[in-house]
Amino acid sequence: MTSLDHGKFTKTTTVFHSLLALDVFLLFFSGYAVMFNDELWWLLALMGGNTGVLALHRIAGFALIALTVFWVTFMIIGPGRRSNFREVLPDLRNDTRAFVQDVKFLLGRADERHPHARQFAGYTADEVPLLSYVGKGVVFIFTVELVLLMISGLLIWSKPALMQFFQTKTAAMAFVGFHGLLGVVMLMGVMFHIFEHGFHPAFYPVELKAFIPKSDIPHADHDGEHEGTGIERLRLRPSWNWAVNLGGLAVVGGIVGVLLGSIYDSGYPVPGTLTVGGGPTNVFLTIGINVGILVLFLGLVLSVYGNVLRSRYERQVRERGRAAATDGSGDD
Ligand code: HEM
Ligand code: HEM
What we know:
- With about 325 residues, the protein is mainly alpha-helical.
- It has helices spanning about 10-35, 40-45, 50-75, 80-90, 90-105, 135-155, 160-165, 170-200, 240-265, 285-325.
- It has one domain (about 5-330): Transmembrane di-heme cytochromes, Chain C (Fumarate Reductase Cytochrome B subunit, Up-down Bundle).
- It starts with 10 loop residues before the first helix and ends in a 6-residue tail after the last helix.
- The site of one protoporphyrin IX containing FE (HEM) has 24 residues, from helix 1, helix 6, helix 8 and helix 10.
- It comes from Halomarina halobia.
């Protein structure tokens, strides 16, 4: 571990991030097994067929509401949380500058990234903001999407009640379409998120920042073993090159597959009927949608792997502490 892995999440946040990811993956798997029941027949069967998958989706939906209530309460009454909240708010001047400088940097017209864009790459913890403008964007977009998914999910909970309320079947169906469409938008964001944090050259195959709490990570100021941030000690894994290309291809293929699938399968944006699925069983669409689900599955695996690495790291730290205490070197 190097100080490049400077933590930013507290222990509660790492646990919350893992639970949120697990629940959102469940919502994706069950939601899309309903929507693309012909292309994802195997997933539907794995999740207990039509009845099982709908029950699972609703239970995971409730879990998301419970997690959100917990998090909002925690943000209001948790120690030091309200000051953290300020870090999430946009700083229009600097965040816009950081974006413009990033474009220039990509075109080779700027020497370095703006401080508000810094997330990785050789800076020490105190040179990096708690959230870069990209991180703020992720929080904002995921929050809006999840809130809208919860509201529309509750609205379509009982379709007969919804039809009675809106008097027309089309208006009721539009809510189902809206919910499914929002899911697709969220899916794109989550796939990029998995790609960003799974395939970064410095951290591949998984960036541990979201899994190891900052209190457990050595920072430059108390990691006296070496000069600098540790970037010079990193070696690019030989498999990164093909893995990043394959991962990028799968993300793009998966997004295109799910987008096209949602147009064909549910008469996007308003589904033709209230019974889901039943679209054309096109082989390319089937491959694209399955690749999309595979990318999500990779995200789930990486999330589990991140937690396995966390517990391995904690064990090593404990053992090192015990060894230092036994040979008496723990005092210096
Ligand atoms: C559906 C699943 C997930 C959701 C809803 C989610 C949500 C979030 C949110 C809201 C943030 C804070 C914004 C940010 O700092 O970028 C975040 C940060 C992070 N997530 Fe996730 N995440 C998910 C899955 C994953 C997975 C699978 C990984 C690992 C591959 C991961 C790795 C990270 C990392 C490393 C950060 C810290 C980024 C930083 O430096 O700011 N996340 N996640
Ligand atoms: C990441 C979050 C979520 C995603 C990706 C998602 C995705 C989906 C998808 C794709 C469908 C099928 C839509 C269609 O028929 O075209 C669906 C249906 C549904 N979702 Fe969600 N959803 C999410 C969150 C929620 C939440 C939070 C709730 C409840 C509070 C919920 C409740 C429902 C209900 C009741 C249905 C209708 C099932 C039926 O046909 O009986 N969803 N969802």
